[in-house]
Specification:
- Pfam families: HATPase_c, HisKA, PAS_7.
- Its EC number is 2.7.13.3.
- This protein folds into seven domains: about 1-45; about 50-150, PAS domain (Beta-Lactamase, 2-Layer Sandwich); about 180-275, PAS domain (Beta-Lactamase), CATH 3.30.450; about 285-410, 2-Layer Sandwich (Beta-Lactamase), CATH 3.30.450.20; about 430-530, Beta-Lactamase (2-Layer Sandwich); about 545-625, Helix Hairpins, CATH 1.10.287; about 625-780, Heat Shock Protein 90 (2-Layer Sandwich).
- The strands form six sheets. Strands 2-1-5-4-3 form a five-stranded antiparallel β-sheet, with helices on both faces. Strands 7-6-10-9-8 form a five-stranded antiparallel β-sheet, sandwiched between helices. A five-stranded antiparallel β-sheet has the order 12-11-15-14-13.
- It has about 775 residues and is α+β, with helices and mostly antiparallel strands.
């Protein structure tokens, strides 16, 4: 082989070697790229297998290509080729959802909007979300690529979130309504501490129109400068990271109120707050403090000792009576000793009961602090004989209040009362009267032996305290008139109910007579007493018979005196007539001595006729009444006429008659003869009983209703026991009187005549001081 040929061969070989090397390099690169594409395809396949979405390719001819995983998710046994095969009876997409999806596919194929739809799988509650649009190259135009996402869990979560959101909205609305309707101010501050929300109560408190005005003005409930401002409280809450509470005054509705302000920090840097009106609470706290103080002041004024211990058993309060009763210095008590120390100190002062085991006794009293009883009471008898009543009250805060009452005097009084009751019972049982006490309900409460003996009642039955209605039948058996027992019942009822006293009388079958009386007692009961009046009844009957006899004798005497007066008038008239005839000279002229005898006879006849008229007036007026003549009488002239009639007799005894007639005496309408005789009788008595050279004063006056005539003498006077008898007929006071005064006719006649005119006679006298008799005569007879 030639060198040139070899050269050519070498060149060709080198050329082909280069070409082979180049092909090898290109093949290696292609293999590398193929491996990369294969790896990418595998990665994409792995991603598609693990992706939550499944692909569905829809060609323009209606054919579909479905992912095997999607076929399995849809529950399809055979691979679908068309859209119609994507649904079945119990698998695939529900027919109604597929029909709607078909419309979305048709719209997207002609350039409509991308598909976004949710479809449900038949036979289950699973939900698939369909998204997709044009498939793009290399697929022809109109081909659609749909991605189906299984959103069953997400849908359930969404529904749950939707429900929660709805509930949250409802709760927020309710909370907003609650905040708006809250009766106290509430607000919300943004991070800049400016108001962003207020409720109606806040608006009303700052007197604004609405919340917008409050926020616009930045009105605050508390508008004080410095750290006490409303914003300062919100800042303090943010800095502390917890609610900030403070109490400050504010003016609301023109009234100064105390508010409790609460600022609550929020995670967003905002602050919410509310205000509560605690003015009433402050007032109540103040009143409580005053009440506690007043209670302590009251305790200091109490006679009982009061001591109070706190929950730690130290002395919190004591009053002065306790210090005196315990015989402990107030300075020592002011150091607030412990409960045990106080008991020990009282024991040293012998102000506790003597007990054998004092530590155990003290431990029992410590149980008062944890006792569930509302009140614990004990009686302490001290070595000195004093009796104390101890009342312990466990307090809600764990303390104890003790009230110490000295009942020594009460115990002594109770003992004395028991003694008095025994004495009373013994006294009642030995009384002569029958005594019983009925309660307000009519039951027999108390009785003595005399009561049971009088009515013959069984003591055991009486001890059952029968009612008065039950006693009446038992009492009726002992009475002459059984119906009279009802008087006892009615008397007890009227005394207990009506509080009226009453009396009565009953007669027993054994001949005894009893007077009973019912008296209301202060405690509402009724005291019923019975006294045996058998003897007094008999005496009373005898006295009544005697009084009847005396009255009959007095009547006979009066009739006798009246008849004798009439009988004496006839001969006296004859004697007077014949004497007047002799004095007139019908029997001839009389000698001087005979004329004196006839004059004496006429004077005696006149006096005797006057005395007889007085007796007749006295007796007839007592039996039939005085018949008056009615005429106008000048009382001044009538008094002077009576004075003139008695002047000669007064002159005989050298007595001085003083007359004083006031211009108001005037006139009366009545019987002039009887009124003149009344005045003469009084004057005649005064002249008769006044000693020689005595003084008699007569005065007359009057007013619109009556005339008053007084006769005063300086005689010996009348004793008090005789003053009651001076107006009694035929009663004579003393033994020195003469004429009609000696017969006791003057003053009784005067009283009879004056009282017949409707007037009255008054007597005032004392031994050694004289006598005054006053006649009061009405202007007209009554």
């Amino acid at each position: 082989m030639s060198s040139s040929t070899a050269m050519v061969v070498i060149i060709l070989a080198a050329f082909w070697l280069a070409i082979a090397a180049l092909i090898l390099i290109m093949a290696t690169r292609r293999i590398a790229r193929a491996n990369a594409v294969l790896a990418s395809a595998r990665t994409t396949a792995a991603l598609l297998r693990s992706a939550p979405a499944r692909a569905l390719l829809i060609h323009t001819n209606g054919k579909v290509e479905i992912d095997s995983h999607l076929q399995r998710d849809l529950g399809l046994k055979d691979e679908p080729k068309t859209l119609d095969q994507l649904t079945g009876n119990d698998s695939g997409i529900r027919a109604e959802d597929l029909e709607v999806l078909r419309g979305d596919i048709a719209s997207a194929a002609i350039g409509g909007p991308p598909i976004e739809r949710q479809v449900r799988i038949a036979g289950s509650e699973r939900v698939l979300e369909v998204r997709g649009g044009p498939a793009g190259a290399p697929h022809p135009h109109g081909t659609l690529l749909l991605w189906l996402f299984d959103t069953s869990g997400a849908e359930a979560e969404r529904l749950k979130l939707t429900t929660q959101l709805h509930q949250t909205e409802l709760a927020l609305d309710s909370l907003t309504h609650l905040i708006e309707s809250a009766p106290f101010p509430m607000w919300y501050r943004g991070p800049d501490m400016s108001l962003g929300l207020v409720n109606s109560a806040f608006v009303a408190a700052v007197e604004a129109r609405d919340a917008a005005e409050v926020i616009a003005r930045g009105s605050e409930l508390i508008d004080s400068p410095g750290d006490d401002s409303a914003r300062a409280g919100a800042l303090a809450a943010l800095e502390a990271g917890r609610p900030y509470v403070r109490t400050e005054p504010a003016t609301i509705g023109g009234e100064r109120r105390m508010l409790k302000l609460v600022d609550v920090p929020l995670p967003t840097g905002a602050v919410a707050g509310f205000a509560i009106d605690i003015q009433d609470l402050e007032d109540a706290r103040f009143e409580l403090a005053q009440h506690v103080e007043s209670q302590r002041e009251l305790a200091d004024r109490m006679t009982a000792g009061v001591v109070q211990f706190d929950a730690d058993r130290t002395l919190g309060f004591f009053n002065q009576p306790f210090a005196v009763m315990a015989q402990i210095e107030p300075e020592w008590l002011a150091e607030k000793p412990e409960f045990d120390r106080l008991l020990e100190r009282m024991r040293e002062n012998a102000r506790l009961p003597e007990v054998r085991d004092f530590p155990a006794w003290k431990a029992e009293r410590r149980e008062w602090f944890i006792s569930t009883d509302e009140v614990i009471s004990e009686d302490w008898i001290l070595a000195s004989g004093d009796h104390w009543r101890i009342v312990a009250q466990p307090l809600p805060d764990g303390g104890v209040r003790m009230i110490v009452e000295d009942r020594t005097e009460q115990v002594r009084l109770a003992s004395a009362r028991d003694t008095l009751l025994r004495v009373r019972t013994a006294t009642f049982d030995n009384l002569f009267e029958a005594i019983s006490v009925f309660a307000s309900d009519g039951r027999l409460y108390l009785w003595n032996k005399r009561f049971s003996e009088v009515w013959e009642l069984d003591e055991q039955w009486l001890s059952e305290h029968p009612r008065v209605d039950e006693l009446v039948p038992a009492m009726a058996r002992r009475l002459v008139n059984p119906t009279a027992a009802a008087q006892v019942r009615e008397m007890v009822r009227s005394t207990t109910s009506g509080r009226r006293s009453g009396t009565g009388r009953v007669s027993m079958t054994d001949g005894r007579h009893f007077e009973f009386a019912a008296v209301p007692l202060p405690d509402g009961n009724a005291l019923f007493t019975m006294i045996d009046v058998t003897d007094s009844t008999r005496i009373e009957a005898a006295l009544r018979e005697r009084a009847t006899g005396l009255e009959e004798a007095d009547r006979i005497k009066t009739d006798f005196v009246a008849n004798m007066s009439y009988e004496l008038r006839t001969p006296l008239t004859s004697i007077g007539g014949f004497a007047e005839m002799l004095a007139a000279g019908y029997a001839g002229k009389l000698a001087p001595a005979a004329a004196d005898y006839v004059s004496a006879i006429l004077e005696s006849v006149e006096r005797l006729a006057k005395l007889i008229d007085d007796v007749l007036d006295l007796t007839q007026g007592d039996r039939k009444g005085v018949v008056l003549e009615k005429e106008r009488i000048d009382m001044a002239g009538l008094v002077r006429t009576a004075i003139d009639a008695l002047t000669p007799r007064a002159a005989e005894k050298k007595q001085k008659l003083d007359l004083s007639v006031d211009g108001s005496t005037g006139v009366v309408v009545g019987d002039s003869r009887r009124l003149r005789e009344s005045i003469e009788h009084v004057l005649r008595n005064a002249v008769s009983y006044t000693p020689d050279r005595g003084k008699i004063k007569v005065s007359a006056g009057g007013d619109e209703e009556c005339v008053t005539i007084s006769v005063t003498d300086n005689g010996p006077g009348i004793s008090p026991e005789d003053q009651e008898q001076v107006f009694t007929r035929f009663h004579r006071v003393g033994g020195n009187a003469r004429g009609d005064a000696a017969f006791g006719l003057g003053l009784p006649l005067t009283q009879q005549f004056v009282e017949a005119h409707g007037g009255k006679v008054e007597l005032e006298s004392a031994l050694g001081k004289g006598t005054t008799i006053t006649l009061k005569i009405p202007r007209a007879p009554q």
